């Protein structure tokens, strides 16, 4: 069995034993002392097995029926990336918010680095905004999912295309290349974003109007098969209206992850998970808890 396959199996076991069952023996066995877990929804990182016990206690006390399901998985070297869904019911306080009794289902992307059969770095982005909306702390969002199929290029070729898309479309605001990078039947899986080329261009214009100095830095990247994953940081200044929030001039910095599926040198499908909650908090639209 290859390193990638062994690491994938470890991540699947991690979800089953730790995230879904809260098994303390599995935490001690699988989480290295130097492991760091970060997620924008929660303000501070969690360190090592003791940190994981705190994390699981926090999640289980808030959402006793919390259940994660892995929807997609890819690996390269010591890194595994999973796209997952999580469901549960708000039955205890969470991050300063009282329980509402409301159910939720959200998507997220996790970036896991392993060494010698243990987790040493776990970075997660989830639909924090959707979580708060569904448990009644804010208002409602929906999700979609589908598949199309085309010929597959090499992972290295796909990495180049995906990086160029980020640089040209977001950092250089070059809309003329959108038709070059997005396939004619392009599907977008980000909640609230319209599909197809016109929908993407409309969303890009929305964000560029709000943040004309967008700078998106790719922090890390892996590719496997026909998919590429980027972990990135978005830095910008709030200079225009967004979601009904007038410009504040605030400097913003928030993180995200994106999975793209490519065929024939174009992006045919895209999943994004970004810290929308943190973005709105930094804009002053939502109070920090």
What does this structure look like?
- The chain has helices spanning 3-19, 24-30, 48-62, 128-134, 155-171, 178-181, 196-210, 276-282; strands at residues 31-38, 46-47, 67-76, 79-89, 103-115, 118-126, 182-188, 215-224, 227-237, 251-263, 266-274.
- The protein is an alpha+beta fold and 289 residues long.
- The chain folds into two domains: 3-134, Nuclear Transport Factor 2, Chain: A (Roll); 155-282, Nuclear Transport Factor 2, Chain: A, CATH 3.10.450.50.
- The strands form two sheets. A six-stranded mixed β-sheet has the order 2-1-6-5-4-3. Strands 7-11-10-9-8 form a five-stranded mixed β-sheet.
- α1 packs antiparallel against α2 (24-30).
- Mean pLDDT is 90; it is low at 139-151.
Q: What is the strand and helix layout of this fold?
A:
Elements: H1 3-19, H2 24-30, E1 31-38, E2 46-47, H3 48-62, E3 67-76, E4 79-89, E5 103-115, E6 118-126, H4 128-134, H5 155-171, H6 178-181, E7 182-188, H7 196-210, E8 215-224, E9 227-237, E10 251-263, E11 266-274, H8 276-282
Parallel strand pairs: 1-6, 7-11
Antiparallel strand pairs: 1-2, 3-4, 4-5, 5-6, 8-9, 9-10, 10-11
Characterize the main sheet. Answer: 6 strands, mixed
- The chain-level structural class is alpha+beta
In the predicted model, the low-confidence regions spanning at least 5 consecutive residues are 139-151
Helix content: 25-40%
Order of helices and strands: HHEEHEEEEHHHEHEEEEH
Task: Please give the radius of gyration in angstroms.
Answer: 19 Å
With helices defined by DSSP (H or I, 4 residues minimum), what is the helix count? 8
């Amino acid at each position: 069995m290859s390193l990638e396959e062994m690491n994938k199996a470890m991540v699947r076991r991690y979800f089953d034993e730790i995230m879904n069952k809260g098994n303390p023996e599995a935490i001690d066995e699988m989480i290295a002392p130097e492991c760091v877990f970060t997620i924008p929804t929660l303000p501070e990182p969690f360190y090592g097995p003791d940190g994981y016990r705190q994390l699981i206690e926090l999640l289980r006390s808030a959402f006793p029926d919390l259940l994660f399901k892995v929807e997609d998985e890819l690996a390269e070297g010591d890194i595994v990336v999973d796209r997952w869904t999580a469901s549960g019911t708000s039955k205890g306080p969470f991050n300063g918010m009282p329980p509402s009794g409301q159910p939720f289902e959200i998507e997220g992307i996790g970036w896991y680095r392993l060494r010698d059969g243990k987790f040493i770095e776990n970075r997660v982005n989830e639909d924090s905004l959707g979580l708060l909306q569904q448990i009644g702390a804010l208002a409602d969002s929906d999700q979609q999912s589908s598949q199309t199929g085309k010929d597959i290029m090499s992972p290295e070729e796909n990495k180049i295309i995906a990086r160029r898309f980020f640089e040209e479309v977001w950092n250089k605001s070059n809309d003329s290349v959108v038709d070059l990078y997005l396939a004619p039947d392009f599907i977008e899986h980000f909640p609230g974003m319209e599909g197809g080329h016109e929908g993407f261009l409309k969303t890009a214009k929305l964000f560029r109007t709000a943040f004309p100095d967008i700078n998106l830095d790719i922090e890390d990247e892996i590719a496997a098969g026909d998919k590429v994953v980027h972990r990135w940081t978005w830095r910008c200044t709030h200079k225009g209206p967004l979601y009904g929030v007038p410009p504040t001039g605030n400097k913003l910095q928030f993180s995200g992850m994106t999975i793209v599926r490519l065929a024939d040198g174009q992006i045919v499908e895209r999943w994004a998970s970004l810290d929308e909650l943190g973005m709105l908090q930094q804009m002053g639209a939502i109070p920090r808890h």
